[in-house]
Amino acid sequence: MLIKLWYGKSGEVKQKPYKKQPDFDDAKPEGIDFISPSIIRETLPKELSAEGIKMTDYAVEVGGTAVPVRYYRSFFAQISAGNTWAGMLDSLVVGDFGEADMDFAIHVRPSANDRELDAIGRRITGLLSDLASEKDVSKRDSMMDEVKDLKARQGRIRRNTERSYRVSIQAIASGTDWKALKKYCNSLVKRFSGKSIILRSADGRQLDALRAILPLTTSEVPKEHFLSFETSNVADLFPFGYGGISHRTGIILGREIFMGKPVFLENWHPDLTNQHACVIGRSGAGKTYVVMTLVNRNTHIRRRVGILDWKGEYRDYMIAMNCPFIELSQHSQDRINPYDVDITEMPDGSRYVDIEEAANFVQALVYKMISVYDRNILTGEVKVFISNSIRTQYEDAEITEDPESLFTASSTGDGKFRIGRTYKKMPELNGLHDMMEKSDKEAVRIAADIFIQFTKTGKAPSMSIFDGQSTVSVKDAPIFAIALNRLDKDIMRPLGLVAAQRWITEKWAKKNPDIKKLEVIEEAQNIFNDPDVGGVWAESSYREGRSTNTGIISVTQGLEVYTKSAAGIAAIKNSPIKIIGLQEKIDIDSVQGMLNLSEGEAHFLVNQASRGKVVLKIDNESTILQVQATKFEHMLFTTDPNDPAYAQRKIYIRDLLEKRNKSVNQEQTG
Questions:
Q1: Separation in Å, CA 25 to CA 17, 450, 497, 607
Q2: pLDDT of 185-218, one tens digit each?
Q3: 408-416 contacts: CB < 8 A, separation 24 or more?
Q4: 3-state SS, residue 253
Q5: Measuring CA to CA, which residue among 466, 453, 472 is closest to residue 493?
Q6: What digits encode the pLDDT tens for the residues 610-664?
Q7: Which of 73, 214, 363, 552 is least surrounded, with the fewest CB atoms within 10 Å of its CB?
Q8: DSSP of 363-379, one letter per residue?
Q9: Coiled-coil stretches, from where to where (predicted)?
């Protein structure tokens, strides 16, 4: 119960209970409370409030109409993360920190570019001066990073890419119960400190801070609470804007769902460290639809694309594009040899054959084949024998790091060499098995008895499709797909994913480093979580991607997939572009910090995202967009059998194949 206090004539303190107070939701302040309050007073710690409560912090008391008094505390934000992000203030809108109210104000003042450039220049000069005398390595690194950021900002302002603003972010918490308000404020400050946003109380100037948000007063926010922001930073502060992506080249992926502006995506944007990307979304969230849109539009701007198709969903699209669709299965003629190597061409013009990396991959694949049945057989003795034997196979074929060693010269029979060269035959898995079978080590011969299943010598044709010379070639196709859906799901499909990815790297990605390429890996978690090949794959693919001008696009369902293995962590850390669709709440909670998701973005992904609506994050920029396809694209991309466009596509592909077959028959008959 609240007690009203007053002083009697003799100085004694008298008290009288107030009437029962209205409920919290009925105690909202009204306009009259600010225009003509019954009381307004800034309190200090240890003072008594109008209700006789001992204050424990700075605040402002405002007499109200529904309640005798309401308490206000103001905070100003200081961002220590060095960047802003879309939806960073969303939790201020929700205000779910306890029993109190939350309001916030954003004070924005345009800043003259010349003044801002002068200020940045002075800061850079000061940092460079301090660097000359600083001995601490960590402090030097921090100062150098700041100099780099300041110079980048200096360039953006000078080119008018961004405008400069002075911005102050003010949060105002209020409530009718002082203890509840204090608890609310403590929770508020703690929550935002976890996001590298420090909320500093306006102690000693709480009344001035409260007056600064009212339109009828002349009070202003003190200068020390203003931050220097750019246009995109200011956009990040508003919940209705969700910031934006600064890319203005590349492909148009869709439109922002709030502002309706087109969203560009450029994997080769100069500000990005590499071209890699992640596409993440639950089943039915439209991952394949998003990826097909991304793939199709990249091919139209002369980027080449290779796809590892886990479910065979790209068949119709490949037929429509008249591009190679390679199906790995016992009944197809398509074969891939994991021993295949090719010339690696570096941007500086150097050329070599990476035999060591190829041998490491083949041995990892063989380990995986054997471990399918009995991992205990892979003793150290067996592993060493397999590793040495694979390298011996390359030596016997006279294939070395010299690019010329890949080719064999052929003559016409008269001693003269033909114009042009042909590739040598690569080693095969059956050759490795023969070496293992003839070993004088019993453990190796036991391993050979299991490994035989994956060779042509064994009795399982469906499991020997990777034993033999490769029969496929993609040449200069703008786009191609390797389908794995006809392979055994438990054993051969994961093996096929690994073998096909390696083949793409050797026979496609490493060629023509001047050509921009994207490699799409559907259901990438089957590589991430593989204990035998996951680490080897991540080490080579993400490291070599930049040098071969190739971007890896890993596609998987759950965010948590990336946290379960070293390969997954490497993928998420080395992918500056992330496209995230509908998610389970438990997944969001586990990786929100890793992906730097704002609370608004996390809430959207769990509660509002639908097919084709995604969060696009590019380094420190982000937006929420609706992926939009043309009518023809939609017909080619949809995977929903209940969609009328799906049936329309089947008819379109059938007619297209009939026309092509008719044309081929006419050519053959002359």
A1: 22, 72, 58, 26
A2: 999 999 888 888 899 999 889 999 998 888 777 7
A3: none
A4: strand
A5: 466
A6: 778 888 999 878 888 899 899 999 999 998 899 999 999 999 999 999 999 888 8
A7: 214
A8: HHHHHHHHHTT-GGG--
A9: none
Q: Which of 670, 660, 653, 664 is nearest to 320 (CA)?
A: 653
Residue that has been written with the tokens 């002349």 in this structure = 218
Residue 252 CA to residue 627 CA, distance in Å, equals: 9
Within a 13 Å sphere around the CA of 472, how many CA atoms are in the beta-carbon half? 27
Residue 434 structure tokens = 């023969």
Q: What is 15-27 written as a DSSP string? A: EEEPPPPPPGGG-
Q: In the 8-state DSSP scheme, what is residue 482? A: E
φ/ψ of residue 603, rounded to 5: -60, -40
pTM: 0.64
SS3 191: helix
Instruction: Determine the number of helices (DSSP H) and then strands (DSSP E) in the chain.
Output: 21, 24
**What does the chain come to in residues?**
670
Residues 6+ apart with CB under 8 A from 429: 338, 339, 366, 451, 454, 455, 464, 466, 467
Contacts 24+ apart (CB under 8 A), 586-593: 586/560, 587/558, 587/559, 587/560, 588/559, 590/559, 590/560, 590/563, 591/559, 591/560, 591/562, 591/563
Round to the nearest angstrom and report the end-to-end CA distance of the chain: 102
Beta-bridge mates of residue 256:
625
Nearest to 287 by CA among 556, 519, 645, 597: 556
Q: What is the mean pLDDT of the chain?
A: 84
**How far apart are alpha carbons 30 and 38 in whole angstroms?**
13
Where residue 112 falls (left for φ over 0; alpha for ψ -120 to 50; beta otherwise) is beta
Look at residue 25 in the predicted model and tell me its pLDDT.
45
Report whether 653 contacts 316 (CB < 8 A).
Answer: yes
Q: How many CB atoms lie within 10 A of CB 299?
A: 18
Q: Residue 39 carries which side chain, given as an amino acid letter?
A: I
Residue 548 CA to residue 543 CA, distance in Å, equals 10
The position carrying tokens 């379109």 is 652
- Distance (Å, whole) CA 296 – CA 213: 50
Token pair for 118: 């002068």
Residue 345, strand partner residues: 351
Closest CA to 71 of 158, 182, 201: 182
Radius of gyration of the chain (CA): 33
CB 393 within 8 A of CB 366: no
The DSSP line for 563-621 is GSSHHHHHHHHT-SEEEE----HHHHHHHTTTTT--HHHHHHHHHT--TTEEEEEETTE
Residue 75 is classified by DSSP as: E
Q: Hey, is 7 helix, strand or coil?
A: strand
Domain ranges of the chain: 22-111+164-228, 274-336+470-607, 351-469
CA 401 to chain centre: 36
Summarize the confidence of residues 32-47 as an average pLDDT: 79
392: tokens are 């011996």
Task: Report the SS3 class of residue 420.
Answer: coil
Given a contact cutoff of 8 angstroms between Cβ atoms, the answer to whether 175 and 100 are in contact is yes
User: Thinking of the domain 274-336+470-607, which architecture would CATH place it in?
Assistant: 3-Layer(aba) Sandwich (3.40)
> How many C-beta atoms lie closer than 10 Å to residue 65's C-beta?
14
Q: Would you state the pLDDT for residue 65?
A: 67
Strands 304-309 and 517-521, bridge-based pairing: parallel
CA distances from 230 to 40, 117, 164, 256, 624 (A): 37, 12, 5, 20, 20
Alpha carbons 460 and 95: distance in angstroms, whole number: 63
